[in-house]
Specification:
heterodimer, A: 186 residues, mainly alpha, Arc Repressor Mutant, subunit A, 9 helices, 71% helix, B: 230 residues, 2 domains
Chain lengths: 186, 230
């Protein structure tokens, strides 16, 4: 079913919207949740929560890209779940590693009194991604948005693992400079 | 700012970037990039091998091909594959046996002439002795023989002259002239004169051709990679 038809089902408050969404994007959202949570059961719950959140958001929201819209919801829910789950240290190993890697882009948590506007951060991130080459951008987003393992990224992109790590390292350094340049304390 | 905050703000990036990096979508671009990457590596390595092979094989020729000193130039000239001289061309065209034959004939005719001369003298004596009929016959024969000998001698002289000039100047013969002077079929002369050039054309190194083709293929793959990177 086309995305427009699925959105129309949400607007009509048809329960079929959820089943069609799960049929078309369940696997995609499941992959994101599994990458972040590292647990199949938790991931399944997160995907179910995604359809519920979508049901509550559409209408009035009419997403331009339904796939990315569902992906964002799943990612957000998964990160929130990890945050709340204090017993399990940062959930999956991949997410913990990604957080550690990105820590070099941001200021020391204790020393930082950062209070930048969210819109500025968003614009800075988009400008940073725009400046990256297509290859570097895909690798960066697959690592820090989809939380894919470095080994999997390297394999699917046809790079060596060390080259992929090097690309990520340079991208993080560039991001740190970009944030600093925009006045965001790092 | 905490790293967790940064990860959360990552959620707000443009959807185009999210879809671009979608790992679940089969990407033709990624496949093409992988193919082009290996294409560059394989073609460049193969081109390097062929070009090195070509360089190794042509190294001895290059060593004698310098032009810094007259001595080196002379040495190179002696060692290099020179175009055939007119003598070689004539030999290749089958002129030499004909020339020898002409000389032998000329020698025989010269002896005959002497004999006829003697006979002429006798005939003259006979004529003097009023044996007119016989004397006329002998004279006519003498005249005819003389004309023939002159032609033969002239042809041999021209051949010798051309041969000497060629040896002195070491000049590539004109096929048409050689054929005309030496009475050799023009087609054969052309073949003999052009043999060297033909051999040169056939000896274009295949390693160089393969190296150039593979290097061009590697460049094409590299261009594809460059386009895909942007």
């Amino acid at each position: 079913m086309e995305d427009a038809a699925i959105i129309e089902l949400y607007f009509q408050r048809s329960e079929r919207a959820v089943s069609e969404s799960d049929k078309k994007y369940g696997r995609y959202c499941g992959t994101i949740a599994r990458n972040i949570l590292g647990n199949a059961e938790d991931a399944e719950e997160c995907v179910s929560d995604t359809w519920l959140r979508a049901w509550n958001t559409i209408p009035p929201t009419r997403p331009s890209f339904l796939k990315a819209f569902f992906g964002k919801i799943t990612r957000n829910l998964s990160l929130n779940r990890i945050e709340k789950d204090t017993a399990q240290k940062r959930g999956g190993g991949v997410t913990a590693a990604a957080l550690d890697e990105l820590a070099e882009c941001v200021a020391d948590e204790r020393a930082s009194n950062w209070s930048a506007d969210g819109a500025v951060i968003k614009d800075t991130l988009n400008a940073f991604l725009k400046d990256l080459s297509r290859e570097n951008r895909i690798v960066f987003v697959r690592r820090y948005w989809y939380f894919e393992d470095v080994k999997d990224i390297a394999k699917s992109m046809g790079f060596s693992e060390s080259k992929t790590k090097m690309m990520l390292k340079r991208a993080r350094e560039a991001l740190a400079k970009k944030l600093e340049k925009e006045g965001i304390e790092v | 700012m905490k790293s967790e905050d940064l990860l959360k703000y990552m959620n707000e990036i443009d959807e185009a970037y999210i879809l671009e990096a979608d790992p679940s979508a089969p990407s033709r671009t990624v496949s093409l990039r992988i193919v082009s990457m290996w294409g560059v590596r394989i073609c460049a390595a193969a081109a390097a091998v062929f070009l090195i092979l070509f360089a190794v094989r042509s190294a001895p020729k290059l060593q004698t091909g310098g032009s810094l000193t007259t001595l080196e130039m002379n040495s190179a000239g002696e060692n290099a594959a020179a175009p055939p001289s007119i003598g070689e061309a004539k030999e290749a065209a089958g002129f030499a046996p004909l020339k020898e034959e002409a000389r032998e004939k000329a020698g025989e005719e010269a002896e005959a002439y002497e004999a006829y001369e003697m006979a002429g003298a006798e005939a003259y004596e006979a004529y003097e002795a009023e044996e007119a009929y016989e004397a006329d016959e002998v004279y006519e024969a003498d005249e005819a023989n003389d004309t023939y000998k002159a032609d033969e001698t002239h042809e041999a002289y021209r051949a010798d002259e051309a041969y000497s000039m060629a040896q002195e100047n070491d000049v590539q013969p004109d096929a048409g002239e050689a054929a005309e002077v030496h009475a050799v079929p023009e087609e054969e002369a052309h073949e003999a004169a052009g043999a060297h050039d033909t051999a040169d054309a056939r000896s274009f190194p295949p390693e160089l051709a393969a190296g150039i083709l593979l290097a061009a293929a590697a460049a094409v793959f590299a261009l594809i990679r460059l386009i895909l990177k942007r």
